[in-house]
Amino acid sequence: MSSLNRRSFLRSAVVYGGGALFAPSLVGLTACADQPRVARPGQSVRRLGRGEGGYGVLAPSADCPELALPHGFRAVKLSQAGDVMSDGVATPNAFDGMAAFALPNGNIRLIRNHEIRDPAASARPFGNAAMAYDQKAGGGNSSLEVRVRPDGTRELVRHYASLTGTHWNCAGGRTPWDSWITCEETTEGATQGRAAEHGYVFEIPASAEDEVPAVPYKAMGRFTHEALAVDAATGIVYLTEDSTFRANDPTRPGAGFYRYIPKQPRNLLAGGRLQLLALMDRPRYNTSTGQRPGLPLPVTWVDIDDVDPANAASDPSAVFRQGLAKGGTIFQRLEGCWYGDGSIFFNATSGGDAGAGQVWQYRPRGNSGGQLILVFESPSRDVLDAPDNIVVSPRGGLIVCEDGDGVQFLRGLTQRGEIFDFGQNLTVESDEFAGACFSPDGQTLFVNIQGATRSTGASKGMTFAIWGPWEDGVL
Fold first, then answer.
1. Which candidate, 192, 98, 186, 189, places its Cα nearest to that of 141?
2. In the chain, how long is the greatest CA-to-CA distance?
3. How does pLDDT run across 321-355, given as a tens digit for each residue?
């Protein structure tokens, strides 16, 4: 990337609240999305080497044997499942979505999801039982405080349970008012043996120094939530749903892309309106296959009349079916979601002709419904395998966490849609990367290896801090 392009990119950054959450433009990705390397099966994708935007070949890290990284990058393992935290609680497994926030003392707060899926018969809250949402659910969140030492290394200062008793906490999203919203990717409830109903989102202030009460935001819908992003200009929240489309299978109608228009921006608990994206004049349009990168598709939004349906526990798609009946658009397993440059970018993990994944962009447009654009479609799992969490660095590159089969990578994408490898998991094969996020100053990448999603699983979740010569490439 030329220095001129990089300067132009950085001018489009936005800042969230007291901590700088940089969100550079991805216009370049979209502008080149119709070029051959951006991807349909059978077409080539340009892989970048060092000096071309990428960072070169990967080699086992001398600091962390669990990772392979480019030359010049350092890493430290901050946390591992089973570690005893500062509050005396054992760190739960299943590390997933995460965000970083600036603290008044100059340190960094990480808030991390735990996608624990223990069955109701054995599930227990890992934190304070009196604060837990459900006594028969083992998911939730932990918070970490990290500092940069004078010698440049990163270290854990303290960590503790910050929300417990929720279930299947996969991803979520940070807000412009410095909080993390964690999402449940399940609608289980009493009929499945739980002590409370699930399928909601919960909020944790970055300033919280201890566990907070788990309060469900029911107006934001009961479905298989994945991730969310807040439009800093309007306060509208955009949400993804992790559900599968299968032709001729009524139990698999697909996933939706939602927006929540709050009555009071910055106070999501005060209620609002939930809507589902639909393409204008194309009712029930299916984006799973046959898409053209770079083509703007006009959007409208349809209201969800019953955001908390009584049958959601038995039918996780009960909310989506309402929007589908009004012409809503079908996606294939929506996961990671990120806001920047006035747009929302999100992943369809198994979308595309090759079923290897898609990256979509939604552009709001004033009083109109906006536009939906396919930015990138993976032509094969060797190029990009099941994109999940996503994040954009303050230097303009996009990092995608893989959640597929076999060896898993952190993939980088340039503003031109070119791809390269940035990190490789050298631990358990098929153990996904998750929770990638940058420190407020953009100098540290935090990322998780998930580990087992059961408390008794052998594979251990891990959180890493990575730093190095970011200026040598687009990240």
1. 98
2. 60
3. 999 999 999 999 999 998 877 889 899 999 999 99
Domain locations in the chain as residue ranges: 3-36+100-407
Instruction: Report how far residue 350's alpha carbon sits from residue 335's, in angstroms, rounded to the nearest whole number.
Output: 10
Q: What is the DSSP letter of 416?
A: T
Token output for 428:
């358990």
Per the model's pLDDT, the better-predicted residue between 17 and 422 turns out to be 422
Q: Residue 229's beta-bridge partner residues?
A: 238
- Rounded CA separation 141/209 (Å): 13
> Tokens in use for 112?
């991390």
pLDDT score recorded for residue 416: 67
Q: Is 4 helix (H, G, I), strand (E, B) or coil?
A: helix
d(CA 376, CA 374): 6
CATH-assigned architecture of domain 3-36+100-407: 6 Propeller (2.120)
pLDDT tens for 183-198 read: 999 999 999 999 999 9
Strands 201-205 and 225-230: unpaired
Helices and strands of the chain, counted as H and E runs? 3, 26
Per-chain mean pLDDT for the chain: 91
Q: What's the rounded Cα separation, in Å, for the pair 284 and 203?
A: 32
The amino acid at 223:
F
